[in-house]
Amino acid sequence: MIVTDKSSIITFAIPVFMLLILIEYCYGVYKGKSNYRLNDTFTSLSIGMISRYPTMLNLGLQSLIFVYISKYFNVGLLSVKNPFTWIIAFLLYDLSYYWMHRMHHEIKILWATHSVHHHGEEFNLSTALRQTSTGWLWKWVFYLPMVFLGVPGEVFVTVAGINLVYQFWVHTEHIGHLGFLEKIFITPMNHGIHHAKNKEYIDANYGGVFIIWDRMFGTYIARDPEIKPVYGTVSALKSWNPIWANLQIFTTMFKDSIKTKKLSDKVRVWFSKTYWRPEDCIEEKDPKEFYVKFDPVISSDIKVFSFLQLMFTGIVSTSVLFFLSQITYNEIFIYAIAITGLSSMTGLLLEGKRYMYSVILIASILGIVAIDFMGILNTAVMSANLLTSQLYVNILMVCLIYIYQSYQNISLAKN
Questions:
Q1: Are 178 and 171 in contact (CB under 8 A)?
Q2: How distant, in Å, are the alpha carbons of 206, 332, 338, 390 from that of 379?
Q3: Measured torsion, CA atoms of residues 317, 318, 319, 325, in degrees rounded to the nearest 10
Q4: Is CB count within 10 Å lower at the N or C end of the chain?
Q5: Mean pLDDT across the chain, nearest whole number?
Q6: Would you call 168 helix, strand, or coil by DSSP?
Q7: Cβ(49)–Cβ(132) below 8 Å
Q8: If residue 303 lies in a helix (H) or strand (E), which one and from where to where?
């Protein structure tokens, strides 16, 4: 099956990614330059976990169209037996990625599916995992020429996986200039510019592996020693909810198309430049907010609970990837709902919305009933037992937090 991000290379790279994130965090703490925040990291990793499910569920027409074109319109120029096929495919994929990536920064309806990767206001290895859950809608269109040319399916999937895995390491501030390599490859220094929202840097350096495309097509911008990158999006997300992160721009476009009075603008808002909005929809922004990071003050219990949620959810989601052959399509859908729901509820909790404890408690009880008594998941598969364990731990922790809060309230009343 030909899918742009379904390579097993990605699955086996995930544990390595987690290890490198931990190493980067420890190194940053050791050097006194850590740029990790629990809320930002939680959201990045949650978005990454959720992004795998559309691929596992084969959402969209990508596979069907790729297979159809490969069967009936394949000109057969490239043979899987020819070693040069792999080199050509790798270069073609990165060139296709460049144009896909660039168009997703220049056309608003495409930006809506890509903006989730840029919401992070920190630039670290966890940011690399902020992958879209809506990219299956149309990003595959940019790779159609490769299928027409006859790039074999196994070659396509492999080079796609290598391309995506390569992009992981370039999301760090701990690696500086790399000399002549920066003239050829995407590196942490020039990719950091891509994630900056400064007007001097915005919309540049689109390559996945090679920076040469940007140099060829005029979109390369080098870092100015006098201008420090400010990360995030111009229209800040201001949320730790992974669902909202994937839907923010879609929602804005929909609201603008309803609100604006000019008929042509109702259509233009979907296909305009990413920064454009109808005149009667423009909102005033405080210039000072450009530099302010979204960081609500939360209590210690929320921090501990959210950290444990992140650990559990990560383990459950990774186990689903490794035991995928033992899990049915319907069960994948259930895991997708569970991981997305738990991540979103915890994200809202990280925004200081304590009522989410009650929602998580109820959801966990219902989840256990559904798994243990209604049999919606095959408990012979480790993933189901891990998810059940997480739900039991959720119930225990929320009850303990409520008991502790009640004790504190009683103590305060007595005093």
A1: no
A2: 44, 14, 15, 14
A3: 100
A4: C
A5: 94
A6: coil
A7: no
A8: helix 300-322
Closest CA to 134 of 272, 249, 42: 249
Query: CA 27, CA 211: separation in Å to the nearest integer?
Result: 28
Rounded to whole angstroms, how far apart are CA atoms 334 and 380?
A: 16
C-alpha angle 390/10/4, rounded to 5°? 120
Whether the model clears a pTM of 0.85, i.e. scores above it, the answer is yes
pLDDT tens per residue across span 321-352: 999 999 999 999 999 999 999 999 999 999 99
Radius of gyration for the chain, computed over Cα atoms and rounded to the nearest angstrom: 23
Per DSSP, the residues of 261-278 read: --HHHHHHHHHS-TT---
Give the containing element (helix H, strand E) for 401. helix 382-414
Q: Cα separations (Å) of 56 from 92, 220, 277, 294? A: 25, 35, 35, 32
Half-sphere exposure in the Cβ direction for 123 (13 Å, CA): 23
- Sign of the Cα pseudo-torsion (376, 382, 385, 391, in order): negative
How far is 108 from 253, CA to CA, in rounded Å?
Answer: 8
Residue 1 confidence class, pLDDT cut points 50, 70, 90 = very low
How far, in Å, CA of 140 to CA of 103, rounded? 13
pLDDT band at 280 (very low <50, low <70, confident <90, very high): very high
Contact 117, 105 (CB under 8 A): no
Contacts of 220 by beta carbon, 8 Å cutoff, 6+ apart: 190, 204, 205, 211, 214
Q: Length of the chain in residues, anyone? A: 415
Return the biggest CA–CA distance within the chain. Answer: 83
12 vs 46, 87, 342, CA distance in Å? 18, 23, 24
Which residues, in sequence order, are bridge partners of residue 185? 210
Distance CA 284, CA 296 (A): 22
Percentages (nearest 5) of helix, strand, coil residues in the chain: 65, 0, 35
pLDDT, residue 414, reads 76
Token pair of 303 as six digits: 């921090």
Question: Which phi and psi (to 5°) does residue 231 adopt?
Answer: -90, 155
In three-state secondary structure terms, 37 is coil
The secondary structure of 81-126 as a DSSP string is T-HHHHHHHHHHHHHHHHHHHHHHHHSHHHHHHHGGGG--SS-SGG
